[in-house]
Amino acid sequence: MAAKKTERRDKLVGAATYPLDWLEERSGLVGGIRYFLFRKVPGDSSWWHTLGSATLTAFLVQLVTGVILAMYYKPSPSEAHSSVEHITHDLWGGWLVRGMHRWGASVFIILMFMHMGRVFLFGAYKYPRELNWIVGVLILATGLFEGLTGYLLPFDQTAYWATVVAVNINGTAPFVGPYLATILRGGAEIGPDTLARFYSIHMLLVPGALLGLIGFHLYLIVRLGVTSPPWSKEAAGREPEEEPPARSGLVQPGPRAAGVRRRPTE
Amino acid sequence: MEERPGDDRPQLPQPSLWPVGFAVGIVCLLVGLVVSWLVAAVGAVLALVFGFLWAREVTGGRQPAGGTAPDEPVPSAPAAAEPESGERFPRSRFLEGATLGLGAVIGAVVTLPAAGFALLPGFLKQKAHKVDLGPISDFEENKWKIVTFARDPTHADISRRTAFVRNNGLLNGVPSFTIISNRCAHVGCPVQPGGPVFQKEEKTIKTANGDVLMTPVLPAAGFICPCHGGSYDQEGNRIAGPPVRGLDRYEFDIVNGRLILGDLYSVVKVEGSGKTAKIEKVELHGPGQHADGPESWLYPLQPPH
Description:
The complex is a heterodimer. Chain A is mainly α. Chain A has helices at about 1-25, 30-35, 50-70, 80-90, 95-120, 130-150, 155-170, 175-185, 190-225, 235, 255-260. In chain A, helix 5 packs antiparallel against helix 6.
């Protein structure tokens, strides 16, 4: 009786995991995701280490809400402001999605700086992770550029004059400044092309760059691993590294993920 | 767990003083650009010399720094050493070059027009629009008016500009006007008149450029910027605050008794006032860009405005 039951259970589990196995055999995706999610991290990593993922989450929120806002926003000088009003006041849930995008932008920037501070104070930018610091700074710059270009889009007085000032500050850069300002405005003065140009930069050009940079940032994290905190005894070699307890339950570490547990030098 | 020496240690360069000298040279150069040619020249020489020494040390410093262990396994022969083949220019290398070259050509054919389309239109056909401000009889002699108009009627509100206009009376039988742009020379906020604005006497006239709004004003204290406190006198000379020069002015024309606004130009200094003012004109500069003194060398070429 009992044997029959387990046999049936095995069959069911087999049927349920068949699609996953099919996918894994043809793409290695399941193993790849396992490898990404079940990496080895230092045992004494703390909540401070979550700031990076928090920033990523904020970015994803911007991505999703931005795509939806683009369904209703109209980037022309005569319609931009009224379409934002329409989103905020008339459309169902518009106030929420626009609010998430608007306030989420600040959250994204603040989290980037906090994450940067954590990395700095933990010394996590040191060898061999210097390149990841550099990529992070590029992400910060492109993120701030997102803030600048997005600020114009509601097209009210604040947006307009803030952009005038920001573009003119760019214009004071030595030698290239005047040209930079003209490129940003798409002309000698702020005009209808400026808004469409900022919109395109804000939703296509810079997010594309950000996605690439974030992908490279994550690749380097997976390749180099997470840094121990500066107070880590484990990293200082004062306490022997314990073998992590065998995981049980739904997610068993696969052979690839298990392989990562050992350092190549061991 | 045993660590192999030199395995995951950073290969740090030797400590060096050359970068410090290089940095000092750069600082001298930048300060010298503002202060004097001599300092700039000394800075440039310093930067060049120390930069060269630094570069030589970095590129030459690869050889044994005494740290490499002799018992370390010899790295495998560089991949560049290809097996000798009879041909001097093998077929494989030709194909490789052809693929890369063709790829580059295709990439350029696609990218260059797109990049040009993105960047160039902003620099081309940037001609100023003549704006009709109505009959000059609307402007009383020696009185100021705030005039708000559309620089390009097809662009509606976004091309709305404001100027302060004063009729200076006749100069050698020709009407003379002072037309000052309200764009602050700091970062481009709209400056405000320092004095009463007579809103009740406001009037709108219709011209070929759409509505032109005129409001009499008495800018007794000149013009003041609300953003960062730049202030100017009635001729647009900078008195105080962060602006780097005076307010820009518009050229003008009188056609059939009507005041026609022309191009903008920047002003270094205005001596005197009214119709006898001596205006030191320069090409239109963006806000925050110096138009005179050594700082103006930082903006040698202006794109078409």
